[in-house]
C-alpha cells in the first residue's frame, strides 16, 4: 500500500492505494535477515522478488549468472584496433 502526504499548514494523508498487483512475493521468510526489497536511487521504482508459478519439483531452479572481470574478457574478445 502507498499513502501520500499532502503539504499544507496541517498534516494530511491521501487515500491508500495498492502498489503491487496480484502475485506472491518473497517476504524474507526462512531465516533471511535483511530487506526483501530495494528502492531505486530516484525513489520512483522498487524491486521485489516474485515467486515462481508453482512448486513443480521437476522445473529447473532459477539461475543468476555473475560475470566478474568482464572488462578483461571484453578486451580479449574485442582487441583494440
What's a quick, concise take on this entry?
By secondary structure, the chain is mostly beta strands.
Descriptive account of the structure:
There is one protein chain. The chain has 81 residues and is mainly beta. It contains 1 helix and 4 strands; from the N terminus they run E-E-E-E-H. It has one helix at 70-77, and strands at 5-6, 12-13, 37-39, 46-48. The strands form 2 sheets. A two-stranded antiparallel ribbon has the order 1-2. A two-stranded antiparallel ribbon has the order 3-4. The longest helix is centred in the last third of the chain and has 8 residues, at 70-77. The radius of gyration is 21 Å and the shape is flat.
Question: Main attributes?
Answer:
two-stranded antiparallel ribbon, 10% helix, single chain, two-stranded antiparallel sheet, 4 strands, 81 residues, mainly beta, 12% strand
Amino acid at each position: 500500500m502507498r499513502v501520500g502526504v499532502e503539504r499544507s499548514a496541517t498534516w494530511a494523508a491521501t487515500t491508500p492505494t495498492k502498489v503491487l498487483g496480484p502475485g506472491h512475493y518473497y517476504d524474507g521468510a526462512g531465516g533471511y535477515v535483511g530487506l526483501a526489497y530495494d528502492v531505486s536511487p530516484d525513489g520512483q521504482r522498487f524491486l521485489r522478488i516474485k515467486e515462481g508459478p508453482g512448486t513443480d519439483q521437476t522445473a529447473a531452479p532459477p539461475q543468476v549468472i555473475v560475470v566478474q572481470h568482464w572488462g578483461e574478457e571484453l578486451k580479449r574478445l574485442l582487441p583494440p584496433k
